[in-house]
Fold this sequence. Notes:
The protein contains four helices and no strands. The chain has helices at 2-10, 16-21, 25-30, 47-55. Helix 1 (2-10) packs across helix 4 (47-55). The longest helix is centred in the N-terminal third of the chain and has 9 residues, at 2-10. The protein is extended, with a radius of gyration of 16 Å. The N and C termini lie far apart (50 Å).
Amino acid sequence: TLWHLAERYLGAGKRYLDIWRFQPDSYRTRRAGPDHIVVGDVLMMPPEAIATAVWLNLLPKAPAAPPAVDL
């Protein structure tokens, strides 16, 4: 839920509307409200949430570069 994301990345569940308001209008018009997110949704996060994710090392790792090929 947005509440859980806000708890984890913004420090307080009651800040879930900060995440909701950060979504583009095109996303918000497809959903009935902040309690209607679904698996697979890609959410934009406020900058302070991204800083927390970096600090906690929660961001996905970049894929390894493919091995070099001699031609």
